[in-house]
Structure formats: structure tokens, C-alpha cells
User: Fold these one by one.
Assistant:
Number 1:
Amino acid sequence: MLIKTKILLYVAGIAALFTLTRCFYSDKQNEGEQLYTQYCANCHMDDGSGLRNLIPPLAGADYLENHRDDLACIIQHGQTGNIVVNGKNYNQGMPAFEHLKPGQITNILNYVQTNLGNNNPRFTIQEVEKQLRKCRHLLED
Amino acid sequence: MLLGLSALGWQACSQSSSETSDLPYLGERQLVQREVDGQQVTDTVYHRIPDFAFINQDSQVVTSLTVQDKVYVTDFFFTTCPTICPKMKSQMLRIYEAFEDDPRVMLLSHTIDPQHDTVAVLRDYADRLQVNSDKWHFVTGEKDSIYSIALQYMVSAMEDEEEPGGFVHSGAFVLVDQNRHVRGIYDGTDPAQVDRLIRDIPALLPKKKKKDADKN
């Protein structure tokens, strides 16, 4: 009886660990893709190509690498003002997605970073949360 | 310029050929009785877009005369639209590119947020889309005139605080013929429907004469 419980606990432990790591790396590719289609593709297009000089691309965008630390805040709070992506100026304004949770933002970012022709390092939810705590200074300047 | 003019002149003479295309006439129609040589005949009067006047991205007035003898595709949008508009515009660009060199086809996009979308804002928008204002007019005007012309095109457009961006509007592309009859309504966010629209437009255009084709 005792052994059985031990095994059970062990199994539960592995399962928990597994879920934890899944959470940690936020490996929900599907959720990221779904959220991207729902919230981002309207503007940035399904393939991330953007729209001429109006909407910047996410596919192969140098911005994703150069401004990695700002990405979570851009999604949560939107972006205004002139920015340069792959050498082109954009100044159209992106709306905020205040309702998205850090986990959802992580999944969207990971979808963007590893799809649409991109091959950038992934985000952890911790990194996203850390970025989100520091957004204020972005909004003020 | 000369080429454009001659195409226009030629087109005016052969307008009737568009009547033979298979595309339906959309909207309400009226049957009008009249007498010809003592006989009662019934004419069908199709729904026709009334005269209009708006201002485009170059501060030029765009009226029903601007689209006279043209086939045009029209839609309703606003530059700060957080939802479907960029997709619509990327699809409209496909139509633009398909008929870029054909002066018989025009595009007309109305803003439904004239308060924000001034001539200067529309100018910047069109510039960033890198499109030519002879071909693709982005127009603004009196809010009431825009909303009432939308009804004529059978497109919904109105303010609604509940909606993202503050407006309800449809992603429809409306195909209008040389006589301002509505000949098709397509979902401007659906590439397959826009493919069909691109295939339908030539059905409304008078067949190019061999001579004309050689000139191009």
C-alpha cells in the first residue's frame, strides 16, 4: 500500500514537473498561434509581412532582436511615435492589449520569435513579467 | 495622357457592352411603366448610386463625375482601425496592382472617421501605401454624407462606442459599374473573394479592340 502511494506520488511529481516546465518555457505553440491570428494578424498579416510603410513587418524584423527588452510592453501597452524596422520608418500607432496576461504575451512572443521565418531566442514567462514591471518608463518618454 | 484620353473616348461609345455581362444588379429595383407607340412597356430601373462629392488625399474634390465611365471598387475604413482595415487594404492593394495600368478602373476608399482622418492624415496613409491618387482616392467629407452613401452601397458603417476603435463597419468591397450600378459585394478580408472580384472586373469592361491591345 505504502509503495503504491509512493509510486503514485512519484508519478504525480513527474507530471507536476512536466507541467511546470511547460509553464516555465510556456511551450504552448498553439495558444501563441491562435492569439496571434486573433489579435495581431489583422494588422501584421498572417505571414507577418506587415503592410507597405504603414504596418511594420514581424517576419524577419531586426526590431525583434534590437528591442527584445521592449517587446512585452509594446504588446501590453501599444506603441506610438516613429520607429525604424529594417531601415524603414513607421509611425502609425499600435493599440494596447491591456487584457492579455503575461502567459499569453509569452506565448504570442514565442510564436513570433520562432515562426514567420524568424529564429530568435524564446521568452520565459519570468522574462516577460520582468519586462512588464518596467514598462512605465517606456510610456513616459 | 493621350492614351488615357483615347481609351476614355472609346469607352464612352461602347458602354452598352457592359450590360451584357453576367454580373447581377444589386439593390432595390423599380419597375417603371411607360408608353411607346401606344404600347405599355415596363422598364426596370436599377438601384443607382446618387451623386456625391468628397475630398481626397490631394484636397481634390472627388465627385460622381470623377468615376464617370469608370468601373470602381469602393470600401469604408478608418486609418486608426484596430481590426480588419489593414487586411482590407492589403487586399485592395492586390486589386490596385492588377489594374494599375488600366485607366478604366478606379478605387475609392471612404473614411468613416472624418473627424480624425483629415486630408493630411489620408495623404500620409496613401503615401505610406505607396499608391497613386489618380487611381486610388482616399476620401473624407461630412460624416452624414459618408454614412448615407455607405447605405447606398449597402455597406454598414456607424459609430459605436462598444466596438474596438469606436466604429462598426463591414469589410465589404463593392463593385460599381460605369453607370453607378452596384454589381457585386465581396468580403474584402477574404483573399478568395477578392480573387473573384479581380476576375469579375474585366466582365464589366468593354472588350479591348485588337488595335487597342497592340498600342499597350
Number 2:
Amino acid sequence: MEINLTLNGKKIKAQIRPDELLLDFVRSQGCRSVKRGCETANCGLCTVWLDEKPVLSCSTLAARADGRTVTTLEGVAAEAEAFGAYLAEEGAEQCGFCSPGLIMNVLAMERELSDPSEEEIKEYLAGNLCRCTGYMGQLRAIRNYLNRKGGETDGENR
Amino acid sequence: MERTAKIVGSPVMKKDAMALVTGKPVYTDDIAPGDCLVVKVLRSPHAHALVEEIRTEGAKKVPGIVTVLTWKDVPGKRFTMAGQSYPEPSPYDRLILDRRVRFVGDAVAIVAGETEAAVDRALRLIKVSYQVLEPVLDFRTAKDNPILVHPEEDWKSLCPVGADNKRNLCASGCEKDGDVEAVLKTCDYVVERTYHTKANQQAMMETFRAFTTLDPYGRLVVTASTQVPFHVRRIIAHALDIPKAKVRVIKPRIGGGFGAKQTVVAEVYPAIVTWLTGRPAKIVYSRYESQIASSPRHEMEVKVRLGADKDGMIRAIDLYTLSNTGAYGEHGPTTVGLSGHKSIPLYGNAEAFRFTYDVVYTNRMSAGAYRGYGATQGLFAVESAVNELADMLHMDPVKLREKNMVREGNVMPAYYGEVANSCALDRCMAKAKEMFGWDEKFPAKDMGNGKVRGVGVAMSMQGSAIAGLDVGSATLKLNDDGFYSLLIGAADMGTGCDTTLAQVAADCLCCDLDNIVVHGVDTDVSPYDSGSYASSTAYLTGGAVVKTCDSMIAKIMEKGAEYLNSSADEVEFDGKRVYRLDGSGEISLRDIGNRAMCSNGYALEVTESNTSPSSPPPFMVGMAEVEVDMETGAVELLDYAAVVDCGTPLNPNLTRIQTEGGLAQGIGMALYEDITYSPKGQLYENSLMQYKIPSRQDVCPIRVEFESSYEKTGPFGAKSIGEVVINTPSPAIASAVAHAAGVYIRELPITAEKVYRGMNGKG
Ligand code: FES
Ligand code: FES
């Protein structure tokens, strides 16, 4: 079947199989940042935005994107780089395989919540698993990133 | 030239960090050619069976299917998938496809086709009739069981590890010092307990995967998510029965390994497809496959006997480890050793020890290497027993350890008689006590609301590379404009060794980090390295980098002197230039690099290898605080404090992340990650839905500090960090639960149900 959508700001038309998953579709469109870590909607690695809202692309049919807007990390490169630098400063991208999904959710959280507490951050990102870092470094990076606007980044925050 | 740590010890960003956080296509599946055949494996539904007949005609007829392979199509030479130095201690007990299948999930056939849909369809159309055999499922009854997992005559053990396939033994042995029985008889107290750990999954986020192509010379190029590229080369050659010269292995960025990828779990399947069809081929394991047919931790049952006098001096340690290697023997003979070698030596004053072990075959998934590699299992047992001893003596377990712990300068008889030349374990304990508030919190506090808080402690050690065996190497080239290329054969799997090794090189060569470009592993190009396992890279390959830099400096001085019409002993090198000691002339590194590209017969390129007669242990202390719901038995982890002695931390950011990550994995093992089987041998925890690795809501604040010793044989005083950090949570948390609820959980994970049953006398 044919779908029309806006992928990372570009209007495209594509042929898909009816059972094709959004994850496989965006990867086939060259958005290789999007990763798969499970088949059971547990890991969050595949997070993309559908109309600006984070969804698990592994459990979303590509057909659902018809007429809508899909954003992957490639589509928010500048922001990804800005937050990514905070992750990198902590060394909190160990293998990095979970980073794209995490970053998509962090950027969505930033849009959705103002000044989230630690509990809110943890809850918002609960679906983003990471096997390497133990999450502490990610949390330091997120706090530093969110604090940057207030001008004070708390580098000593450990 | 003086060698001072400037970049070493500073928290520099990883060289590949920005590529990773901006989602660049750098992992195996991102760079696989678009025309790769999709490769999948048909897996056995039975724990033990013989393939009587296998019909593939229907599958082969599916449009898009290129090949279907069965046991008849693969070489008949047995090999091991364990990524270890040759001759491997792991027995040669595998074929790519075997007629006898030995666990639920064992490979029965390989299908390759143009699309995933075609391959899935073909898999369903393969008709197999099995002669179902009775399996050996309980590892406690496996030894000398009449049912044999490997009855075949061509089974082979290359090393004297006490293996005997006719007894279901993958390895067995006994080591001792002194007369353990005699000392135990004269001890005031003897604790005798048995502990059980499960076959935990590494569950790295990137599952097993590889793709294979043929190059213009007809050689097989394997691009794989692996920790052991050079071992992959050898193993693929063995498996396909082709010359090693025909194989090249490339390692891109890796989405985590933790030991899982020290076994060649997936590479053989696309490799044989490409070798037989000439077509590029790719395999990507599903999470399901990664859970049921991979290389998890060895399940172990460890019986500890600990003898002490009434003052708490530990006088004797007796350990018997029964290890379950599953259907195949990957890492079986070696992991078991660490259960004793990395636990007993923590207690420096024991008069005698004995360490006995059996590693048995069963019809379970084959085990492999997982961070900690047997030490984790042994330390859960020994540290738990020490905690139980302390409780029995009504003694603070910290005090008990302060009396007994190994200290700098001690000989460690159970650690090959090595001396603890760098050991800050005592300082780690003191610091942990202080940052955790141990004295105020020990042993427990009733919160008055049906909840009780308790605290527990544990120590840990590991090694730094395998002594007298592992090889680390580095190649350094000086290029035009004076920049260096550093080629290493050790695999960066997210750990950041491409960066930390460049930090070492930068300080040796007195240059900026950016003046060194690093090339990851390609077996055609990189110098030989055993691989990234056994906590070897920082210590061993780091040492190779130091040696290589020293040789490079000598060459630069030689060449510089030539350009200055002097001799090497009349000049000095300061990182930027070679200058005459008498001040009468100099030439910049840049000019040397550029000039050496013309009319030069002296290569500014060096390779050095490094090996170590000893394996200096890193040490650490972990302390846990839990809150137990006395009604339900539910355990909540409130605080975890850890202090590590890894020698000099080469990059404090990366050592911290390694520690936090290892602790989180250890916490998962302690509290959440269970492995259970159906009566027929089917694994229940076959997805991340059932196999609960910790989420960010499951880990408490993890607080990490460092107390560094200085290891003279390591680069800039460094020892290893990667593995030591996973070992303390299980025993520390188990003891914290015991102090809160009065229940000793000796089988992991520590679930509410077990605690509840213990509290209600149903244990
Ligand atoms: S791939 Fe795991 S949640 Fe989508
Ligand atoms: S950094 Fe490896 S999974 Fe998160």
C-alpha cells in the first residue's frame, strides 16, 4: 500500500507492506539511528515521534503514519547534539545503542514537562532501558542539560 | 623524556561519543550492505533429540529462498565457539549443525533468502522428524548420569582440564594449600552453607549479529559485533574447515557485550551461507533468540565451609563449586576457576584452603562468559558465608573483614601465590563505611510502619588479564605533519578503550589527544590482541601502548638526529621537536613526519606486544541498604555505596560509568533476573518482558568513589575496572535482607516470595 507522510520535515510517498512496522520502515528510509532492542515493547530503543509525541516504532504499523509527521533523531540533529554533548561529558553513552531512543524521549519530556523533579524524570523515561550505564550518568546529564537554561550547570552533581 | 599523567586521569570525552549520541550509522546492522541475504536458524523444540529425517524441498521452493542447510551440509569437524586463546580450554564439542540437538533452541537448519518474509515462510515449511531422547536437566544429577549429552567419539578436549564426555564432565579439579580438614576440626566456629546462582543473561541492548561478504580475493570478510575479532577469525576457519588466511574479521561499534560476545554465537551462520553461495549474508538475533540460544552466565551451586576462631579470625576456607555449562562447554573449564581464585584470596590469613569443582554438561542452553566470569558466583557464596559467620559471632561484618582482609604486600596462596602489590582494600572499606554511614545504620532499623531497614556489606576482587597467556598489542605510525595513528587489536565495545588507550599514548608521546587517531579492529590491519575480555584491555593493551610509544620515541630520536646530523645520544625529544642537547639545532615533529615521506629507508612505525606474568587484582567494597516489607517480603533497595581500587583510573568518567553500570547489573542479578525452565527444558524468561533487567526506577542511588592504589606493572599505575564492579550487590543485598528480616536467601534472585516464605517458616 502507499502512504504519504512527513519524515523529518520532508514530505514523502512510499510503498509499504500492510504489516510493515514503523521501525523497519524508517530504517529502510535511511533513519539508521532507530534501533531495536526487543520484540515486546519493553526497551524503548525504537522511540520516534509521531506528530511530535513519542511512540514505540516497534509496535506501531507504518500504515499509521499515513498523513502524519514522523520524527527520528536524524530530524532533530541539532538538539540531539546539544543534549548528546551532556551525555558525552558524563561518559554516559557507553555503548550508545540506547542513546537515540533515550534522546528522543528526553527531548519530548523537555517539551512536555517544565522543571521536572527527579521522580518525574525517572517516570517519564522508565521505558528506556540501558544495560551499560546504571542510569546514574544519564540522570546527571539530563539534570545538567535541563539546568543549562537557568545558566547554572551543576557539574559537581554526583 | 619524562612520562607524566596529564591526559591520563582526566575525564576526556570518548572519541566516538558525538557519533554515538547523534545516532550515526556505526553499528553492524547499520553498515550491512543492502543486498545481504537474510539468514535465520531453525531451532529445536526438544531438549534432547536426534534428527531422524529433515525435509527441505518445500522450504527451498519458496520464492526468494537461496539456500537451506542441514547437518548434512556442514563440515564434520568439531570446534568450540569460545573466544579463547588457542588451544582453547573449552572442549571441541560443536558442529555448525549437528544431528543430535542438545537443548531447546539448538540449531537444526539454516535458511537464507532475499527477504525476511520468505525466510520466515521457509522455516515453517521445513519438516523434521525427531527421535526424542530423555534429557539431563538437573545439573546436580548430571555427573555420571547414564544419559550422555556428548556421547560422540569425536568429542575432544585440547587441554588437561579434567574433562570426560563419558561422565558428562566438561572439567573437574581440586586445588589446595594446607590441610583444610585438620584446620576446620580445630576451629571454634564452622559455617557450612550452599549458595545457588542462575544462568543470568548479559542482555546487552544490541543482540548478536554479523554480516559476511566475499572480497575481490575470494576471502570471507566477517563484520561482527564481537569482543574477540582474532578469535572469531580462528573459530570461523575451524567451523568452516577453511584456512585462516581466508578469513578477515572487522569490528564496528558494538552495542554492548559484557562477555556475551566473547563467544562466537551467531557468526558461523551467515559465514557458511556466504562461503557456500558467494552472496553477502546477514544474521540479526531477535531478543527471543538472544535469551534462549546464547551464552549466559554459568549457573553454579557453591558449597562453602568457613572455619574461624572465636575472635573471628578466618582460619580455613573450603569450597566446592558445581557449575552447569549446559549443552556445550564454552568457557566451562575456565569460569569455574574464578569462583575460587577470586573469592578465597580476599581472606589473607587463612591457614588452609581447598577448592574443588565439577563442571557438568546438561541439556540446557550453553553457558558462556558474563562479566565477573565465575568470580561473581563464587563471591556471592563466600561473601554471604562470611556475612553469616559474622552474624553467628554477633560481630559487625565490617570488623570481621577488617581483621581478615588481604592487604598490600600479602601473599595470596589461592591466587597462584601472587603478592598483592597494589591493594587499597582497607582504604576502600574505611571510605565506604564513612560515605554510607555504616556505623549508624548497622544492622537494622524498624521503621515502625511494618517495614524494616537493614544493611549489608561485601568485598570483591577480579584480575587484570589472564597471567602468562593474554597478549595485548599496539601499532603506532608517525604520519605527515606529525600526527600519529594508533592501531589496536582490542575491541572497544562501548567501554571506551579506543579513547583511554589514546590517552595513554598521548601522555607517553607528550602530545594532544587529537594528535592521535585510533583505528579499531580489523584482523588484516590491527596487531594481534587476544581480545577484550578477562579485564585485560586497560592493563595489558595499555601496557603495550606504553611500550610501543617508547619504541616510537627512540625511532623519532634516531630519525631526528639523522636530520640534525647528530647521533641519537646527542638529542632529546620533547613531544614537539627533536633538539640537540647542546642547543645548536632542532627539527619539529611535523618536519620529521613530512621529510620521512621522501627518500627515507627507515619506517617510523612500531608494533609492540605485551603479556604479563601476573594479573594484579582490582578490589572493591559495596554496601547496600534495603527496606523489607515485613508483611509481603518485598525488598526495596534504598542506597548502594561502592568504593573501588582499580589502580589509577585512566579516565575517571569512564571508570565511574563502568562501576555504576556494573553495579546496576549486579543489582539486577540480586533482585530481579530469574531463569526458570518448564519441565521439558523450555526457558520461560525468553523476552525482556519476563527477564526483568533493572529499569531506571528499579535502581536506587548508586554512589561511587575511588581509593586508588598504584600498580607498578600497569600503564600509569592502572589495573582493570570492567568486571570487579558486578560482584558485590548480590552478597551485600542478601545480607541486608537478612539483617532486616532475619531471612538468609541463598538462591538468587532475592524475591519477595522467597523472603516471605523465609519469614513464615516455609523456606
Ligand atoms: S524495540 Fe524494544 S520497545 Fe521497541
Ligand atoms: S549505553 Fe549501552 S545500552 Fe545504554
Number 3:
Amino acid sequence: MLDINKIRNDFPILSRKINGKPLIYFDNAATTQKPISVINSLTDFYTTYNSNVHRGVHTLSMQSTDLFEEARNRVAKFINSQRSESIIWTRNTTEGINLVANAWGKKNITPGDEIVVTAMEHHSNLVPWQILAETNKAKLVIIPINDDGTLNLNNIDTIINSKTKIVSVVHMSNSLGTINPIHELCEKAHKVGAKFLLDGAQSAPHMPINVKDYDCDFLVFSGHKMLGPTGIGVLYVKPDILENMEPFLTGGEMVLEVSYEKASWNELPMKFEAGTPNIADAIALGEAIIYLEKIGMEQIREHEIELTNYALNKFEKLNNLTLFGPLDSSIRGGIFSFHSEYIHPHDLGTFLDNEGIAIRTGHHCTMPLIRSLNIPATSRASFYIYNTKDEIDYFIQSLQNAIKYFTHDK
Amino acid sequence: MYNLEELYQEVIIDHNQRPRNFGKLDSANKTAEGYNPLCGDQITLYIEFNDTVIKEIKFYGSGCAISKASASLMTESISGKKKSEAMVIFNNFRNMITKTSESKFDPDILGDLEILKGVSNFPARIKCATLAWHTLKSMLDNNDQTVTTE
Ligand SMILES: Cc1ncc(COP(=O)(O)O)c(C=O)c1O
């Protein structure tokens, strides 16, 4: 059991009032709040260590380099990567996928090849592959989903075949909450000689991640969805693939030797980090990981399973709305997308905001998925370590009040 | 802090539940589509013009209470008006909703539409209120493309 009160005290923003009501922050799938240790880490860096990293001979540069690389080591341990050179800093998940599609994809995808994604991908794990497929004359193949929001794997052995070069899959869907069978999909990809990319944007913050166990070739996630600052993300690449990958962006930092005619590439991972990196935010992400590990990723997952079961139970009793995604908390994260014919998501969002409750409404950057549900948009509540059952109660009550508000005759 | 009641006036809730001039219009000689990709709101406007006069107007689509009520109120306010008169109402409505310092509007011209004034205090909802109007404007401007709010 997490000591939620203690955790809540670490998050200054949670004491804010919104429209006169205590803030209930249920928009964690979009971005999470930050504990004071992460906020302090940022001020600390700029007041004490600020300086550019690498190649510096002065004290500040050496210290900031140490902190920066220490954060990288911390990320490596967090996902159980053997080598910290496998950790490449990016801005976010989106940039990580674009890096792979460009640096690995352009060279390795040839005409007639197939790229496999699922029907529940975030636009960031769809659009880069659409473009790559078009430029390299490959085919984009979609794994469909069942009505319960799980992947439909009936034809998986036809979908993942000898033409498949990469399978890129979301670990936990940000629209449905579904946790996908990663071991199975990764194994199938490897069996046909394809690479496997895991979009961990929603899983890395909420459950233990183990790249060695999954055996994935690429993993991407965003710092801001796991208590860290915006503007810093992570791309993990398996060492042997990384060695043979061409650079993505070029310029300073990523070169070893430069003449007027040509350049040679710096060692890993710097080869993929052109220009001055986001030093302060990388260090602060390291601090966020310290915070998460102090609580324990297993414990965080347990807490969220408990909240998920609690909310599933509540939703089950409501007959005026449809909840999407699996009803089994062992394959679902704390993400609740729903639709009611009695209230438009936009109106609900405004109504709940008036009650101090922050949820997200719209297509959640999964337009094709939402369209396939035959609704214009959904409302989405998503939980994290600082959320409580009391908050869920208040949310469900307000949800019912909202429906009443918009349907009763005045 | 703004009161919810200011946004969702009774009349708005009523128009949302019982939109006026809702449905397709077989006699229409002009149609236009409006779409807000961000929230999925969609509207089709049907107008039967008699020369430059809006003889009959209907709308169909799906959207939030604000966008539906706004479309419904719009059809009531411009029905029977000349194109040029509708444009004047459009400009006044836009000025009321976007609430910039230099924008002025005439309550006499707006009539019932003034009920939507509260929207101006909810910036996230302004596009909901203007979707139908932008769709109308594109039709009056003779632009055949689907209007999006983006
Ligand atoms: C599953 C998933 N993938 C990718 C992303 C993109 O993350 P970012 O916007 O941080 O690049 C998100 C964020 O919404 C997500 O939920």
C-alpha cells in the first residue's frame, strides 16, 4: 500500500484550488504532475552547476557532465539496459520514433517490405511509418482490434510475415488502457527477422519495464509522463543495432573529426545527440526516476490496479455510458475512455473543470481508432500515484450530475 | 472564475435538446460542411436561396451543446434574411464571442444570439460556438471546401 497522503504532499500543485474546488488531476496520460524534488533539481542545476557538457575542462562543465551521464545511467538501470550507451536522449516519444524511422528505417526498409503497427497507435507511432512506407515504397500493415479493446491476433502469423521488417507497437494504449502482449509480439517479429519497437509512453511511468526480458530492439518514452519535466525523452536501442545506425541529426556533439570536406561520427550515444542537449531536464528526469524507484514500480502498478478495479466497478453500475477497453485490470492500465450519448465530451470536460476535475476530451491523438468506435470523441480520465478512491467517487458523482444537468428539462 | 450557468443558459440547453431547423433540406440549392477535427464536431448546412434571400435553412450533424445550440440559434436568426444582412450578423456575432478590445457588437442586431455571450469567457469553447457561423460564411463567400476550425 502506498502512503498516498505522504506522496501528495510532495506535489505542490495538488494543493491548488480550481474554480474554488480542490484539484482532482485525472489527465495523467497527457502529462503528470511533478514532485518537489524534480522541481528543485531544475533550480539546483541552474543555480549551482549550469554549464555545457562534454569536452569541458572547467569544474562546472565536469560537474554538469557527471550529473548528465549519471542520469543516463539511471535511465539504463530503470529499464534494465546493460549498457548506458544504449540510452539516447530525445525530446519525447515522438522524436524517438522519428529518429528510428529516419536513422534505421530509411536505410533498412526496401521496396516491398512491410511495416506493422496496431489499430490503437498514437499518431506518433503511425505517421512516421506512413511517411517511411511511402518514401521507401513499403507497405504499412495494421493489426486490428477486438470489440473489447484488445488486439485481434487471429491472423497475426499472416500479418507478421517474412516481408515484415519492423513491428512497432504501443505497450499501453493511451486511449483504451489496453496493455498489449509484448513478449508474444516481439517473439513473432524476431522469428521472421523483423525488429520490434515498443512505445512505452504510457507503460514506463506505470509499471516495471525490462528491455532485456522483452528483448525489444527499440523502446521509446517521455519524461513528462513520469514525473519528469517536458522536453526530455528516451530512446533505447539494442547495442548491435545502434552500432550500424546512421545519424539522425548532424552537427556539433555528434562528430569525432571534421574537415571542410567530411566528418566522422562520435562514439555512442553522442552520435545520435547532435547539438547541446537538454541537460537540466535530463538530470531532472533522473531525479523523477529516483522518486519512482523509491516508491517502487511494482507498488505503483499495484496501486493503479487497485484504482482500476475500483473504477471498473463504479463504471459497471452506470447504464448511461459506454466504457472502452478491456475490463480485466491485469491487461489494463488506469486509463478510462468513455462516451455517453447524453453528453458531449466537450461539455463534460467544461462541467468537470468547474468541479475542479481535470480530464481530457477528444481523439487523444488516435483519430483512426476513435473514428472506428463510431463516435466523434471520448472523455478520458487517467490515474497516477497520487490519485485516490475518494477522488474517483467524486468524479463518478460529478459525471452523473453532469448527465443530469444536460438532460433534465429546465 | 466564471459561473457555469453563464455558459449553459437554459435556452442553450433547450436548443441542444431540441435543436430548431434540424435535419436535411431537400429543396436546398446550397450546402456546406464544417468540421472541427479536434473535437470531431461536424455540421452540414442546407440553404434554399431565393435570389439573395435565405428562404429556408436547416442544419444536420453532431457536436457539443454549445455548437449545436449555436447552429440552432443561427438558423433562426438568419432565416428570411438577405445574404448581406446575414454577413452583418456574422460580424457582430464574431465580435461578441472573440471579445477583443476593438471589437464591437450591436445587441439589437444579435437579438437572441446574445445568449451565447458567456462563451467569450470560456476560450476553450469559442470554436464550438463559431463552427456553424464559419460554415455559413464559407457558403456565402462561395467557397465549396469543407471548413475546419483549425
Ligand atoms: C502511447 C503514446 N505514444 C506516444 C505519445 C507521444 O508522446 P509525446 O507527445 O511525449 O511525444 C503519447 C502521448 O500522448 C502516448 O500516449
Number 4:
Amino acid sequence: MPPFDIEGGLGFAFVRGISVAACLSVLGALVFRLVVAPPVLAGMKPSAAAEQDRRWLRLLWGSVAAALLGAGGWLGLESGAMAGATGIADRLAAVPLVVLNSRFGMVLVIRLGLLAAVPLAIGRSLRPPRLAIAAALAAAAAASQASLGHAASIGHGFEWLALSTTLHILAAAIWLGQLPPLWIFLADAPPAAAGLALRRFSRLGLTCVILLAATASAQGWGLVGGVAGFVGTAYGWTALAKLLLFGILLAIAAINRFTFMPRLASGVAATARRALCRSVLVEAILGLLVILAAGILTSLPPGMDAAQGLRWPYR
Amino acid sequence: MRKTLMILFCMVGFAGQAIAHARLESAVPPVGATVSTPPKQIAITFSESVEPAFSSIEVTDAAGNRDDTGKPQVAADDRQVLIVALQPLGPGAYKVVWHAVSVDTHKTQGSYSFTVAP
Ligand code: HEM
């Protein structure tokens, strides 16, 4: 096995992954309520629709809180590491230093601001213009992650690889970030509404999957470093693990769409809805694993660099 | 599958070189070089953009005296180039020890020498 030289250790990569996942969950929840849910809720009894909205709001506030905590925690940890601080007081003193003097610090402070503005944008109503503003804020917060990866550190000006990573992260958010609200919705939805929600989600999900596959290929090409990078470096192994999880996620999505969804309109609708619910939960958990793996990937030296020390005929 | 991977691994083999995020790509004066005019600054080009506030370049002579002026800066037009000014150097061998934090927050370090010819 190649050495997993994770910057700051696994705990750091985990904090990074969790904070990114929470941020993607905020965007996914908003996209679900703004794009997928409206016609579905309109076809439901008003009391049931209102209950769905209450549960959705709890999920949104939970995600915003987790994303704020995650970003704050990551900023605190990383600042200490960047400044080489050891004690608690030194670590705390390092935070303003990092905020004022590094791209990482600046990006995280902007992200904290964008996330904190989401509740303000929504206010007390779920009207589409407010949801759209909140979604734009969350999209900016999620996209800012691309400026902290490898693609944004190499090269001088505009980089196609950085653009690819931005799209990669947004597609991940709009696909996997919608799974928690979808799961919550399916848990208590009439089969017809569940079917409509899934159909609308699938259409958007498919676009994201295509975008993820395209951008993953671009990043695989640009950062992993060919066959040597894939098989001979920890970076390549982690990318392969992501590829494997991506394959499993696609299989689950296909089962949901082509097996469970048609059954929602048949005599076994109640059983199908329960099975679908479980399946979406499993998909969401695997989605979280891919994002955690992405956190590890970004904390490893890119395969194309690491592979330079390997004797391998194909580059 | 496992077996295939193992075989691939044996074929790949590691050359045992240190692996980095912000790698030193080139330096002025160059790594290991002997120069006839004493340089006024050290400029290291890295494979990634670096954060000058958290990076350092220390230059010492054979007696261990510091010859850099302290705080490094990045080049105005290129954040991948880290520059530190030097005190006037006399002939002799100098050691350069660098620590870099890249903009993606990864830390790397390394060292090399150069000589100013008498
Ligand atoms: C469901 C599928 C996927 C999801 C949800 C996903 C998610 C992500 C996220 C969130 C990041 C940003 C990580 C960070 O900055 O902390 C990222 C980066 C990246 N992803 Fe993916 N990804 C997926 C599939 C793939 C696949 C299949 C590959 C290639 C085999 C891939 C290659 C990359 C690369 C190379 C980066 C850049 C990492 C760096 O900065 O070094 N991804 N991905």
C-alpha cells in the first residue's frame, strides 16, 4: 500500500470533509425546496405540506449550524497548524493572523459570512425569491471550497482545472445534498407525492451525475498523474475509492429510479415507499463517505507529484 | 484483483524520494550552483502558490551566521515565487533552509546549498 501522508493527519481531513459535507447539505436542502418540492407540495393537503415544510426547515437549520460549526472548527484547527502554534492561547492568536494573511483564512471568513446570511435571507417565509437568494449564498459558500484545493494552488491566473473543481463541488451538492431532504420527505409522503418528488429529483440528479463524471475525469486527468498516479500513490488509491463509491451510488440511484419508483404507482406502494426511504438513506450515508474521501484526497500530495518518484513506464 | 494490484505495485516500485505539495521547482541562485557575483536575494519557485506570512527562507554561512533579512515576500506577479533579501555576502558556502505553506495550507520544507566564488 502506498504511504498515506495525510497533511495534519486523518482527524484534520475528517474535519475538512464534515465541514464541506454540511455546506453541501445546506445548498442541497435549498435546491430541493426551491426546485423539486413546489409542485409536489402544491398537490398535497395543506396541513401535510405545512408539516413537510416544518421538518425541512429543521433540517436546513441543522445543516446551517453544522456548516458554521464545521467551518469555524476547521479555521481554528488549520490556523494553529499553519502558524505552528501548540498551546490553546497560541492557536487562538493564530486565527486572526491566518484570516488577515492567507487565502485559506479569508475564504473561510467569507464562507462563515455567507452561511450566516442564509437564515437572514430566508427570514420567516419560504417564498421563492428569498429561497433563491439563500441558495445563491449557499452555492457561493460551497463553490469557495474549490479555491482551497490543489487545482487552485497550481497555475497563475484562470485555470480550467479550478473551474472543473467548482462545477464538481456544485454538482455533488445538488445531487447528494438533496438526499437528506428527499429522505425526510419520503418518510411521510403519500405514494403519489413520493413518486413525483423522486421523478423531479432524478431529472436534476442525472444532470449532476453527468457533470460529476465529466469533472472527475478532468481532475483525474489533471491531478492524479496517469496510471502510475492511480496505482502507485495514496492520492490515486483515494481517487479509485471515490470512483468505486461513485459506481455504487449510481447503482443505488438506478434501483431507486427503475425498481422502486414504478412500484409507487402499483398495489405495493406502501412497501415500495418504505424500501425507497431506506435506500435513499443508504445513498446519503455513502454520499457522505465520498465527501469524506474527497477531504482525504485534498489533504494528500497530488498523484502527479507523488508519482514522480515512481519507476513506471507510462506517465 | 488484489493480486493484479500487488503485481502492479511490484512493477511500480518506489524510488524513495520525499514527496511534497509545494515542491521546489527552481531557485536563483540555482540549487548547488557556484556563482561569481554575490546574490542580493534568494528567489525560490515552487510548484504551488505559497503564503509568505507563513513561509520562510533562512540563509546561513559556513559559520552558522544568518545572512537573510528575515521576512520573505512573494513576487509581485507570481505567488509561486518566494523571495528573501540578503545581507551583502562574501565568498564562501551558504546553506538555504526553506519552509513553505502553500495556499491550500499544506506545509513543506527543504534545504540546499550554493557557493559564492572567491
Ligand atoms: C459522487 C461522486 C463524487 C463526489 C460527491 C465528489 C466530491 C468532491 C468534493 C466535495 C471535492 C472537494 C474536496 C475538498 O476540497 O475538500 C472533490 C475534489 C476532487 N474530486 Fe471528487 N467527488 C466525486 C467523484 C470523484 C471521482 C470519481 C473522482 C476521480 C476519480 C474525483 C476526483 C476528485 C479530485 C481529483 C478532486 C480534487 C482534490 C484536490 O484538490 O486535490 N471525484 N470531490
